[in-house]
Amino acid sequence: MSHSLHRYGSAESLKNDFCIYSRAARGVNRDNCGEKLRKILALYLSGKAVNFGSSHSPKCYLAGLDLEEYAKSLDNSYGIIATFADRSSVLGVLKKMKEADLGISVVVSGLIDEVKEIAGEAGLVPHTALLSLGTHGKKSLLPEEGTREIVTMCGHSLVASGLVRSVARKVRAGEQTPAQGALQLTRPCTCGIFNTKRCETLLEKMCETGGKDRTDE
Amino acid sequence: MKIDPEACVSCLGCIDYCPMGCIHEGEVLFIDQDECVECGVCLHTGVCAVDAIYQPEESLVYPRAIRKQFSDPGAEHPNFKAWGRGTEEAKTNDVTGKFSHGEYGMLFEFGRPVTGTRFTEVQKIAMAICDMGIEILKENPVYGLLEDTRTGRIKKEFLHEKVLSVILEIRVRKEQLPAVVEKIIPLLADVDTVVSVGLVTRFEENGSLPVIRDLEKLGMQVRPNAKINVGLGRPLIS
């Protein structure tokens, strides 16, 4: 999955938006990796994760995922991802992961320079990068900028543009707080990579500006 | 997905949740079966208070069955034993060594964000890639849908199926990158969907990513955010 790669927005908007994905590799260290994934889950939770889940869990943590059941289900999984909204939490988790030395691959999504810097502070040497070369094709189909920033926080495209617009209208009308709106918008995203903290900020901004027209990269 | 017309109370609550915008009002609410990608969001989120939304058996019959496999992250690809779009790309490269120095992985993700795609659009680019003598990588669910792995032609029965997103994944030698960018990127303007493009590259020993400069020279804009494998996998492939 390239699912946390194409998060859209300016560098400023993406500054406090991180995902840490731990993934066992087929044919290398995937067999019986459940116990290691549970240890990683504990590290995520100790590091102030905003949200977490995985693609085959029925719902993400903020949408009511049963933590105990989820931990048990990791025996049948090979990856676990969590979202963080501040640099220090990411640094703390990476330091603990290095110390735990579980041997599972770890990918951090975020601004390139910042992730490199954090990895360096944690004593890690970045190995491989997956770069985003933007979105091409029939861009007239893309939603307006503010909506696009929010929908791309679900990498499987499960958060609908219509839902974002509906929630933004309710927030603007005072029927929902930005926090309530963000919580509603995270429900379709089972992986838990939808950053509700960033979403709150984006909803507030959309309410201030009334949104922008369609945009090109 | 379908809505039971006997049970639906037309509260309209599900309409906004559909990523494809294919739930419509008629005498009762209905789902446009041609546009529905079987992602299951309308069902899994529990938005229907009267449980009128259901997955009919025909959703799981081929060729339609591939809609769910590519659109619902909780569905496993039966032949591939992986969830979602099912590719490991950079995520485990520190232990698999799938992509070495001097080569890149390229990912063309059709239908994302939010537009969905039919396999007719995927085929256009798959054929152009194969025409350059570049293979579609096997470790990806799309490979199993190819009728001819040499031409990139997709099996006819799947061409019209619509899914949320599909990733075409290829390996490109460093010297091939300019040709791929110059030939394939302009072709994306002619597909009837959006395509998000990714590139896998190894870090140099000094921590740099020289391909960014190369891409910029080719007119490509590299986004400031990326996914970075921080080298914690073991045994490490250096």
CATH topology of the largest domain in chain A: Alpha-Beta Plaits
Helical proportion of chain B, percent range: 10-25%
Beta strand count of chain A:
5
- The CATH topology of the largest domain in chain B corresponds to Aldehyde Oxidoreductase, domain 3
Which architecture name of the largest domain in chain B does CATH use? Alpha-Beta Complex
Oligomeric assembly: heterodimer
In total, how many domains does the architecture of chain B comprise?
Answer: 2
Principal-axes shape call of chain B? elongated
The CATH class of the largest domain in chain B: Alpha Beta
Features:
heterodimer; A: 217 residues; alpha+beta; Alpha-Beta Plaits; 4-stranded antiparallel β-sheet; 8 helices; disordered C terminus; B: 238 residues; Aldehyde Oxidoreductase, domain 3; 2 domains; 6 helices; elongated
Describe the SSE topology.
The complex is a heterodimer of chains A (217) and B (238).
Chain A: E1 18-23, H1 34-46, E2 51-53, H2 67-73, E3 79-84, H3 87-100, E4 105-111, H4 112-121, E5 128-137, H5 145-151, H6 161-172, H7 178-186, H8 196-209
Helix pairs in contact in A: 3-4, 6-7, 6-8, 7-8
Chain B: E1 2-3, E2 23-25, E3 29-31, H1 41-44, E4 53-54, H2 65-71, E5 76-77, E6 82-83, H3 93-96, E7 103-110, E8 117-118, H4 119-131, E9 146-148, E10 153-154, E11 162-163, E12 166-173, H5 177-187, E13 194-202, H6 211-217, E14 225-229
Antiparallel strand pairs in B: 1-4, 2-3, 5-6, 7-12, 7-13, 8-11, 9-10
Task: Describe the structure concisely for a colleague.
The complex is a heterodimer of chains A (217) and B (238). Chain A has helices at 34-46, 67-73, 87-100, 112-121, 145-151, 161-172, 178-186, 196-209; strands at residues 18-23, 51-53, 79-84, 105-111, 128-137.
Q: How would you sum up this structure, described in words?
A:
The complex is a heterodimer of chains A (217) and B (238). Helices cover 40% and strands 15% of the residues of chain A. Chain A is an alpha+beta fold and 217 residues long. Mean pLDDT of chain A is 93; it is low at 213-217. Helices cover 19% and strands 22% of the residues of chain B. Chain B has six helices and 14 strands. Chain B is elongated, with a radius of gyration of 20 Å. The model of chain B has no long low-confidence stretch (mean pLDDT 94). The interface between A and B is large, with 84 and 81 residues. Strand 5 (128-137) of chain A pairs antiparallel with strand 14 (225-229) of chain B.
